[in-house]
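Supplementary Methods, section 5.1.

A reviewer requested that the exact input to the structure prediction be made available. We therefore reproduce it here, unchanged from the version used in the analyses.
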Amino acid sequence: MRLAGLPALLMTALLLAISSLWPVPAQARSAVVGVPLSTCIAPARAGDRPGAMFGATARFDCTHRQTWFGSGDFWVISQPLSAIPDMQNRSRVRVGSLWQEATTLYALYPDGKIRGWRFDGRQATRHLQLGAMIEWPLPTDIGPPVRLMWHVQGAANLRGILIAPTIATPHESGQANLEMAALYAGFGGLCLALLIYNLAMWGALRHPFQLAYCAMVGALMLYALTSSGALAWLNPTMLNNDRLRLNYVLLCTAAATALTFARYFFVPAVTAGWVGKSISAITAASVVATAFVALFAPWQIHILDALFSLAFAAIIVVVVPIIRRARAERSPYLWLFALAWAAPILFATLRLLGNLTLIPWSFWLDNSTLVSMAFEAVISTLAIAYRIRLLSLERDDALEREVIAARLADTDPLTGLLNRRAFLRQAIGREGKQQLMLADLDHFKRVNETLGHDGGDEVLRVFARVLRQAAPGALIARMGGEEFAILSPADRAITPDAVLAKLRSARMPFDLTVTASIGACTGPIANEADWKAMYRRADRALFDAKQAGRDRARFAPAIAVRAA
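The structure derived from this sequence is encoded token-by-token as follows.
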């Protein structure tokens, strides 16, 4: 896949993202279940009372977007509920979780009575459902209300004052929790499997990008725990605003580690120079912005959230030079990296637009981080596996070259036999009595004069082949020139006459008759001194064979094996 295919991929992801912005039907299966409620907003004033506000509908603004009102205290009223079907069975009021100090839900009943339920930060946590939806259970013993109203105190109003209000049945609420639990459990299981797999791979390979990837996946797991509301089930006493702080921290951690993974995933040239410095600066800026949000929000939350969003925008932008450099370096991993990052970059951009209130809030867009990062995590694992495969091929090729180089260093290039150095390394230290034969071709100078040096080289190769055939399993080496050594255990020794007979029957270039003389000796070869003694005796026996007329073998007296 070429980088040119990236625009098509981005366009596909864009269509999916745009589709997520359309209003979700009431029957859609998500955390936003039940019948959607339309709302109107009225800024709170001193002395406001719920009864008066239910009657003061003229004070409520139904035209402006909620973010137009800024931060503060507000009244939010629903439409009359009489037209909602199956209202007698709808006893669960649900809204999205936001930065606020407290919210009181008021229900107006047909007899004019008003009931209220106040939720501060800890009570909101206790009523948090999966998908980060806060749910008020209405009493069922007095019938359905005719209208609902919320008094929201300390609303930061980043995304809205009251988002995604619905009224649902207990069955719809339970079904939403069940399906969201399956979604988050699937995501958590995927992350856990990827984490275990890549940690195991890191234990064997120790590449820095593997640790960065594991840190990213771990941060995503924890982000899913906090953003889903599951953390509130594990710790129902925590403040809901503290859970939102953790969302910022973990989302920043996931983004920063993802950027670190990208930095180490490619060859150093891709992120060298100003690109690497930009990555470090942007990562530091995002950490600082997140720290300010975590420590001081909701104080000056609009400014802090804007800084956080700008840091994320910078993270998105810095990916572009990484891809361009990777393309220039002809990185084989680029197409997988581009595929993996297409969805997170696009959805992060759309979320950034949502944070800046340039597009309306959507539950699925707000939770798109999990889906897009799960996609990124899976494709990145494929990229890691692909890179590890390439690294393995490079390693195997290097090992093969090393083996070949070692063989070349130990092998005589003309005959393919061991050279003197390799022969001594393998011979000295052998246990028990050994037989050493030194074989030397007779009148080899005459062979060279007759056949030329190329013909003489061919005679040496034929003789080496004869030695392999005559002495299978023995240690055979070309010691230099036309002298060869054959070493074997004395109890399985090859007779010199068998070697000479094999040579006589071998066909030489131009049917030239070539003979050899052999000197043999038996004894220990436990150390270098033993080798020198063995070699002197065998060499003396070889000299005797030459003196006796050549084409024969002579034995030197055996060397006794010393007692241990």
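The domain at 420-555 is CATH 3.30.70.270 (Alpha-Beta Plaits). These observations are discussed further in the main text.
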